[in-house]
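Input (ABC transporter permease):
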Amino acid sequence: MNKYYLMKKLFQSMVTIFLVLIINFFLFRVMPGDPLAMIVRNPNASEEAIEKIKVLFGVDQPMYVQFWLYFKQLAQGDLGMSFMAKEPVIQVIGEKLVPTLLLVGLSTIVAIIAGMFIGIVAASKRGKKIDIISLTFSLITYAMPTFWLGIMLVVFFSVTLNLFPTSGMSTAGAVFANSFEKALDVSKHLFLPTLTLALVLIGQFVLIMRNSLLEVLTEDYITTAKAKGFSEKLIIRRHALPNAMLPMVTIIAINIGFMIAGAIQIETVFSWPGLGRLMYEALNNRDYPLLQGIFLIVSVCVVLANLCADIIYGYLDPRINNKA
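Output:
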């Protein structure tokens, strides 16, 4: 890979993260509402107690001092103190990050595999029944509201068939004999949220994969490969698919940020104890330090995902390296 291309992308990512840090500080401070009112819920609290709380959370300082302390704390790995939990933000987020990564990661893997497979089949059978069925399925799932889809799956699988639990990450009060039983219980709770998010993503991936592959199949080098007598499967696998993957790489990277937004709705429907639900609660309570921490982590994940997409692009399409 071209070293200049790689260094350029790394520099752009670092600049983007730096701008995110600045926006992250000011964004939540221009929101309506008084954060102090969320901290001090007792209307009979004394002035002395209020001042102590201000000092504890650093809201007694001028804005420029808070800004300097914000960067100083970040350099030390300190994201501040949560107004709601009265605990370090990094600790609060750490407890919720794993469930969200489990949900989003598994849903993404399922959606990518299923979306690519259906998209490839639909493109290779263009105009036939399987293509029409695939397109109809994709358009319906792509346009379907996440919240509504989650409720419908709960009604069907949990209420009607009684196959899966309706909420939570594990059975409340359950005692497990071993790790396998615990993993099995978590898997049952994970099934419906994963299915919901995966179905929403699959429709988009199918459409992108199908359209991209159809466009590549019209290229001259594909016609040449057909003239040489190569089988259709070999042409798709070796010649068409690598180039058709480029738009998929982009859309997967872009979706990293949007998945958190989708996770808020899904985690609300299924009471999944993840980052999306935590962000919703922090927003309602004007918990600025917690919101800043979540926004920062999500933003860095999006930037890193796009950086990975650019690097993969460079490997899949050497012309990008040459242009750089």
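The CA atoms of residues 84 and 144 lie 34 Å apart.
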